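User: Continuing from earlier, I have the next pair ready.

Assistant: Great, send them over.

User: Here they are, in order.

Assistant: Folding the first of the pair now:
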Amino acid sequence: MSLFQECKDALSADINIIDDKEQSKFILNLLNEFLTSYGTINCNKLMCTDYLNIENVLNSFKDYTYKVYVVADDSDIPIFQTNLKLALENFYDVSALSSKIFIFNENEIFFPLFPNEFIRYGLLNPK
């Protein structure tokens, strides 16, 4: 069984594989709003908080049932959508997909700081 299949099984209660090219392009453009040209989180555009581990994140977010996209820095892993609660509760399955993984929506992003267990959370600054 592949790592993606394990992740897919862990998120089976709510996972939607994005296979439409236009929708994928929209999602990648959305992701680019958070990133620098080097593929790192642009903390100049975001209010960032670093968490020591996933347990700290889970304790900090109470209302987290909304939809997020997951993009791995690996072209063999499809873009998919799930709810944030499932993504965070199964964070180790999700983050095992690639050394660089992004969990995000229009306003916020979660990004594991590989190779340790730190997780960076970024919230878009109001314009």
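And the other member of the pair:
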Amino acid sequence: MVRAIIPRKWEGKLAVALLVVAHAALAPPLISVADSASLVAGWAPLYLWTLFWGSVMGVVLLWAAKVDAWGISMDQVPPELRDETGVVGFNDTDRSDVTPPTADRTAGGDE
């Protein structure tokens, strides 16, 4: 499991680093390196290059969303803000003090 290998505090930084590397690999100076007339298993190298790095970006974004790499948790909220404003973290299980927002308008439209 990845969670056992990568500490929670490094997940967001790792996701950003991987996205920056993948984005840099798709920059025009590096794409020109992959552009050649020869084929690799019947495919153009430029197509394989962009497909690979685009897939890396997609996988990193899906992984970061799954592990909530950029989400705020209670350990990131200063204690004085936690006490004063009632900030609730994403992974908190005790949400008894939080009430869902209510709609200000009626269901009938503009009344």
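Worth noting for the second one:
The chain is about 55% helix and 0% strand. The chain has a mean pLDDT of 75.
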